Amino acid sequence: MSPLPTLYRGAEGMWMWVVHRTTGVAIFFFLLVHILDTALVRVSPEAYNDVIGHYKTPLYTFIEAGLVAAITLHALNGLRVIAVDRWTWALRHQKMLVWGVWIGFAIVMAGFLPRHLMHAFGGA
Amino acid sequence: MTGAPELKAPKKAVSHSTLGRAQRWSWIFQRVSGVLLIGLIAVHLTVNLVMGDGINQIDFAFVAGKLANPFWQWFDFTMLVLAMIHGANGMRMIINDYAQTPWIAATLHWALRISTVVIVILGTLVLFTFDPCPAGSDPSLLPSFCEDI
Fold first, then answer.
1. What is the pLDDT averaged over residues B49-73?
2. Band of residue A122 on the pLDDT scale cut at 50, 70, 90
3. What is the CATH number of the domain that holds B42?
4. Who's near A124: CB < 8 A, 6+ residues apart?
5. ipTM value for the complex
6. Chain A: residue whose CA lies nearest to B58
7. Which residue range forms the structural domain that includes residue B25?
8. Which residue of B has its CA nearest to A79?
């Protein structure tokens, strides 16, 4: 049986569309949880500290790093989408701009990750 | 990738004027709020996770110290409203793309609208009715300026 025909083309632009969707959905659901946990400041200091304490565990350290990674990718690719919509030059070079997104992402994470991991595991 | 069908060019070019008023505003909002959110969230993450003691500093006293300042109240309010509408607008497009059954699409759209309104109202109430020094609390959990009151 031959595979079903698909509209997905598999080039850089399509994969960035997939990245944009998945990071967007992940950030949205985190945002819902984050507003609810912050709302606990209205309940009591103990309730807030108890729940926010879970963010300081090793597991959450990596989830937070993933969240920052998702936000960085979504932000940089969003700028690429705006540029491609706005300027013919960017439309012609949209594949090159995909690599620009990943390079920018690598730079941001190289700055954030060591600092975050030192906060979480360095005992500082 | 082989096997992909040929895509026909649309009969009519899609432009801002053919999208219709609501879709056009949704398109503009998504881009304007996106750019603003990059700046707001970059500051939010830098102040809370990078500067000072990073993740270890986040507790009631830290949040209360920030939210006692009208600057951070309005900063967080702007971020709350823009992020929730930007996120809900994106989720609306995803529902339109994947939910083919009308009653499922309608249910998801209403669930999205209700949760968005509830979260924005809840977040706004917390930001503007918040008391950094609640009476009867353990003083060691409160920001240091509560001692002066």
1. 85
2. confident
3. 1.20.1300.10
4. A118, B53, B54, B56
5. 0.86
6. A52
7. 19-148
8. B35
